[in-house]
Design a protein that fits this description.
The protein has 254 residues and is an alpha+beta fold. It has one domain (57-253). The protein has five helices and 15 strands. It has helices spanning 2-9, 11-30, 40-57, 192-203, 227-238, and strands at residues 72-73, 79-80, 84-89, 116-121, 124-129, 133-137, 140-144, 148-153, 160-166, 169-176, 187-191, 207-210, 217-221, 243-245, 251-253.
C-alpha cells in the first residue's frame, strides 16, 4: 500500500508515526488511572449550587425585615414603614418561610384587567399574573409575573398601601392591615384609599380598590359588628362602587 511504502522510505513520516504511537499508548494507559478529587471540591460544588438556587428563587429586589425601622413616604394618604413585597419563583420556597397557598386544581379566576389571581395565605397576600406587574410602596418597588409570584406582607402596626402598576400605569391599590391595634378612625370620611385603610383595620383583611376611583370621597362607620355590611352601606350612599369578600380571602371594591 502507498502508506506502508511511504512509511518505509520517508524519515519524517516515520518520526511522526512513532510520535502518534506513543500518544496512543499514553492515552490507553490513562484509562486505567484512578483520579482522586480533592476533599474540598464536593463542598464547593454544593455551596455554588445552593447559591445559584437561592439567587433563582429570589426577586431582583428583596425587601427584608431590617426595613422595619425605616419610614418611607407612602402614597399621598399615608407614610409606610417597612411594608414588604416578597417575591419567589413559582413552586419555590419563600425566604421568610411562607407556603404556596394556591389551590392549583382550581380554575384560574380573572379578577381585574391585569389578570391577577390573589390568594390570602395567613397574613400574606400572594399574587400571580400572566404579565409583569410592578408593586410600589413608597420609594420601594419590585416586580412579579409569569413564573415569579408576588407576596405582599405588612409587619407594621398600621395599614400599608401598595400601588400595582402595568407599563407604568397604576391600575389597582392594595391595602394590607397592620399588626397592631386598630388606629384608623372607625367613624370618619375621606378618600377611597383612606376608607380602604379603615376597612382593612376593622376587618383585619386586605382590601383592593381600583386606582381610577381612589380619590372618591366616602363617609364610613365601622363601629358595628360587621365591617363588610358597613362598607356596603357607605359605598352605596357615596358612589356606584360595590364591595364583596372574595373566595381567595381578600375584600374587593369595584
Amino acid at each position: 500500500m502507498a502508506f506502508e511504502r511511504a512509511l518505509q522510505t520517508d524519515a519524517q513520516l516515520q518520526a511522526e508515526y512513532r510520535a502518534f504511537q506513543r500518544t496512543h499508548e499514553d492515552l490507553d494507559f490513562l484509562k486505567e488511572e484512578s483520579i482522586e478529587p480533592p476533599a474540598w471540591l464536593s463542598d464547593r460544588i454544593a455551596t455554588r449550587l445552593e447559591e445559584a438556587q437561592a439567587s433563582k428563587n429570589k426577586a431582583p429586589i428583596w425587601w427584608t425585615g431590617w426595613f422595619r425601622n425605616l419610614a418611607f413616604g407612602g402614597l399621598a394618604v399615608a407614610a409606610i414603614g417597612g411594608a414588604i413585597v416578597g417575591i419567589m419563583s413559582k413552586g419555590g420556597a419563600n425566604a421568610t418561610g411562607g407556603v404556596d397557598g394556591f389551590n392549583h386544581n382550581a380554575p384560574p379566576k380573572v379578577v381585574n384587567a391585569a389578570k391577577i389571581q390573589y390568594q390570602l395565605n395567613g397574613d400574606h397576600l400572594e399574587a400571580r399574573s400572566e404579565g409583569v406587574v410592578t408593586v410600589q410602596s413608597g420609594e420601594l418597588s419590585s416586580k412579579f409575573g409569569g413564573s415569579v409570584k408576588g407576596d405582599l406582607q405588612n409587619p407594621n402596626p398600621s395599614p400599608a398601601v401598595f400601588s400595582l402598576q402595568v407599563d407604568g400605569k397604576e391600575f389597582e391599590v392594595v391595602v394590607l392591615p397592620g399588626k397592631g391595634p386598630v388606629t384608623e378612625p372607625l367613624r370618619s370620611e375621606g378618600t377611597l384609599v383612606e376608607f380602604a385603610q379603615a376597612l382593612a383595620s376593622a376587618s383585619s383583611t386586605p382590601v383592593r380598590i381600583p386606582a381610577g376611583a381612589k380619590e372618591t370621597r366616602v363617609s364610613w362607620d365601622f363601629s358595628g359588628n360587621d365591617p363588610l355590611v358597613a362598607a356596603t352601606t357607605a359605598l352605596r350612599s357615596a358612589s356606584s362602587l360595590s364591595v364583596d369578600k372574595r373566595a381567595s380571602g381578600e375584600i374587593a371594591i369595584r
